[in-house]
């Protein structure tokens, strides 16, 4: 038993919760099942791991670039508040779960393993469950297992037996991973023209919801005789034509928006806080900081192209031999390699405006919990929603929907973090699903007890059944034969540079 436990701890610590190596592990299994030559398999594994590392450099660069603004707004305006951010949320659970519930944080890793096994079983029996997506984003699984651990412990005090608690948590979390990522299959396949993956992140219900709303916006425009114009279809005239170029658009928007915040913070604060040397030029610091957003976005998109090709190709081996018709659920940043590149900064900025308005509202109405916007929700939630909204409903949807998402992220997080007591420990996960769906789950279980647990499980099981019934002819074709799916849905599939890379 000790040997098995050591093996599991090694696998969980070094592979399962390390997304680059977990992606490499999946590529290895897939290529072996496909019967690839050893050197092709080795090359594919290396490209997948390095590609994810490249994506991570871009992601972490974006986060660190935003840090002076995040810290500055907190320090300059003397806001003692909870930060909505996955890492702050995980730290809050680590700090408080033993004090509040008398449980060790190490239980979270056991929860993660069992929930992941449940996800695999649900996909393996997809003919019954109608679930097609395997959640493979390891670092996100750790963050979500942490927060789910706290929420379910709070909502279910009637579960006194440790095994019963773990079983309920694992079933609900495993179902959430399978069901929520499955909701993103159609929107992602349509966005990528059949690239063969879906999203496994923190805003999966958000992607499904806003894709539907964006589609309605597009249909409404057509009924009024207006063409639904996506951002990539808009050619701006005159001097505004410079915004047609992604690097220029991102840099200028960041200079205007975040440059203004840095000016408000002032050079003296930035020097005192250690972000800027006294001898450095303040203007060029602002320019450099803001334009580095474009640099990190470009790096992130390079990483996407490098590892997704290997993952989706190799996953055919897993899909054919172990999990027929399944697709891997990956980081939301992978979507940024498709559609309009300008949807990323525009979705981000629209969501940021929504979050800032919501934060000011909390301050005005003297909310018991004040919120500081963390970069991960404000960027990765809203940029992702912007990409999907633009694809379904055009430029209007790409601006409006992330704005409302920003409002929801702050208000929902402030409510649930106060309700369950996480606000006292300084952080909450804060991304869309965890500001909407999970608060609803928590309230249902808290006030309905065992019946509430049953209701949550039943609702999650029914969602894919309703998806299937609404789209029987095309449902499984979406992942197994996208060309047929596209014909059934009337989607035009055009060859582009990404398709050429993917075919290779």
Structure characterization notes:
By secondary structure, the protein is mainly alpha-helical. It has one domain. Helix content is 74%, strand content 3%. The protein has 21 helices and six strands. The protein has helices at residues 2-16, 19-34, 38-76, 86-101, 107-124, 126-129, 138-155, 162-183, 185-192, 204-223, 246-265, 267-272, 282-321, 343-364, 375-420, 432-435, 437-470, 472-475, 477-480, 482-489, 497-503, and strands spanning 82-84, 133-135, 198-199, 327-330, 371-373, 427-428. The chain has a three-stranded parallel beta sheet with strand order 5-1-6. α2 (19-34) runs parallel beside α13, α4 (86-101) packs parallel to α7 and α14 packs parallel to α15 (375-420). Residues 497-504 have low confidence and may be disordered.
- The radius of gyration over CA amounts to 22 Å
The percent of residues in helical segments reads: over 70%
Number of helices: 21
Could you name the ranges where pLDDT drops below 50 across 5 or more consecutive residues?
497-504
| Sheet/helix structural class | mainly alpha
What's the main sheet like? 3 strands, parallel
Termini separation comes to 45 Å
Give, in spatial order, the strands making up the sheet with the most strands: 5-1-6
Arithmetic mean of pLDDT: 86
User: Please, how many domains?
Assistant: 1
Number of β-strand runs: 6
Instruction: Characterize the overall form.
Output: globular
* Secondary-structure element string: HHHEHHHEHHHEHHHHEHEHEHHHHHH
Strand content: under 5%
């Amino acid at each position: 038993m000790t040997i098995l436990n050591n093996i599991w701890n090694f696998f969980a610590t070094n592979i399962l919760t390390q997304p680059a190596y977990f992606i490499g592990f999946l590529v290895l299994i897939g290529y072996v099942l496909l019967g690839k030559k050893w050197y092709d398999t080795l090359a594919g594994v290396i490209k997948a791991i390095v590609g994810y590392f490249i994506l991570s450099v871009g992601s972490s660069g974006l986060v660190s670039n935003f840090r002076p603004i995040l810290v500055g707004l907190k320090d300059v305006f003397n806001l003692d508040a909870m930060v909505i951010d996955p890492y702050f949320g995980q730290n809050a659970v680590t700090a408080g779960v033993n004090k509040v519930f008398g449980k060790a944080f190490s239980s979270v890793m056991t929860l993660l393993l069992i929930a992941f096994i449940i996800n695999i079983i649900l996909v393996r029996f997809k003919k019954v469950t109608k679930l097609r997506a395997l959640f493979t984003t390891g670092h996100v699984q750790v963050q979500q297992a942490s927060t789910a651990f706290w929420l379910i412990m709070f909502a279910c005090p009637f579960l006194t037996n440790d095994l019963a608690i773990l079983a309920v948590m694992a079933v609900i979390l495993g179902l959430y991973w399978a069901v929520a990522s499955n909701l993103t299959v159609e929107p992602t396949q349509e966005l990528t023209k059949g690239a063969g993956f879906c999203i496994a992140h923190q805003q999966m219900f958000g992607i499904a919801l806003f894709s539907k709303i964006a589609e309605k916006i597009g249909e409404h425009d057509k009924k009024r005789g207006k063409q639904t114009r996506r951002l990539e279809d808009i050619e701006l005239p005159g001097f505004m034509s410079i915004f047609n170029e992604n690097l220029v658009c991102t840099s200028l928007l960041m200079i205007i928006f975040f440059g203004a915040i840095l000016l408000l913070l002032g050079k003296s604060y930035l020097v005192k806080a250690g972000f800027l040397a006294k001898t450095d030029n303040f203007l060029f610091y602002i320019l450099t900081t803001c334009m580095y957003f474009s640099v990190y976005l470009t790096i992130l998109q390079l990483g996407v192209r490098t590892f997704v090709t290997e993952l989706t190709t190799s996953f055919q081996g897993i899909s054919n031999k172990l999990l027929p018709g399944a697709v891997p659920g990956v980081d939301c940043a992978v979507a940024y390699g498709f559609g309009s590149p300008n949807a990323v900064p525009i979705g981000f900025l629209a969501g940021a405006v929504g979050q800032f308005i919501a934060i000011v509202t909390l301050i005005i109405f003297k909310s018991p919990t004040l919120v500081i916007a963390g970069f991960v929700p404000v960027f990765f939630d809203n940029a992702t929603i912007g990409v999907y909204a633009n694809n379904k409903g055009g430029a209007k949807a790409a601006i409006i929907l992330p704005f409302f998402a920003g409002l929801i992220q702050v208000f929902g997080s402030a409510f649930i973090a106060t309700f369950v007591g996480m606000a006292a420990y300084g952080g909450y996960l804060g991304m869309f699903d965890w500001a909407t769906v999970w608060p609803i789950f928590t309230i249902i279980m808290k006030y309905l007890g065992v019946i509430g647990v049953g209701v949550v499980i039943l609702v999650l099981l029914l969602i894919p059944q309703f998806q299937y019934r609404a789209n029987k002819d095309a449902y499984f074709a979406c992942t197994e034969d996208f060309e047929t799916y596209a014909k059934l849905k009337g989607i035009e599939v055009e060859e582009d540079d990404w398709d050429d890379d993917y075919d290779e």
